[in-house]
Amino acid sequence: MNWPLKIQGRFVTEAELNEIRMLLRNHPLWNRSRLSRELCTRWKWRRPDGQLKDMACREFLRKLESLSLIKLPPRQCPGPGRTPTIEPVEVDRSQISCLLSDIKNCKGCKRKELSKLRESFQLSR
């Protein structure tokens, strides 16, 4: 690989990339935002108003990851327009047969909701 790399208008040296890898290795509980703030502070990466260039740094880190140069921690929550990943669960679909009076602590529902429940559970009338 030819060093320095130009990513997002910034030249990155092999030493800086190794610094990022070291931070990831030494702080496995940090999220992407925490890593970004640390890098901005270390590299004095600030906007003209003095605020950290946090969003620009996170985009920079995503680009490094897309080039397979680093492995970022997983996202904590989906970004705008991204649906969350839902893990599949095992569902017991065996039929239940009993009298309604046998069911204790049964919560009633409104008539309007009952039709939705029937559809959901394929209840017969």
Overview of the molecule:
The chain has 125 residues and is mainly α. The chain has a domain at 5-66. It has four helices and two strands. It has helices at 14-26, 32-42, 54-66, 111-121, and strands at residues 5-7, 10-12. It has a two-stranded antiparallel sheet. A hairpin with a 2-residue loop joins strand 1 and strand 2 (10-12). The longest helix has 13 residues, at 14-26. The chain is elongated and about 75 Å long. The relative contact order is 0.10. The mean pLDDT is 84.
Mean pLDDT: 84
Helix content: 25-40%
Element order: H for helix, E for strand: EEHHHH
- Backbone CA Rg: 26 Å
Spans of 5+ residues with little confidence (pLDDT < 50)?
none
- The total count of helices amounts to 4
Describe the sheet with the most strands.
Answer: 2 strands, antiparallel
Strand order within the widest sheet? Answer: 1-2
Q: What is the beta-strand fraction? A: under 5%
General shape: elongated
Report, as a whole number of angstroms, the end-to-end distance. Answer: 70 Å
Helix-and-strand structural type: mainly alpha
Number of strands: 2
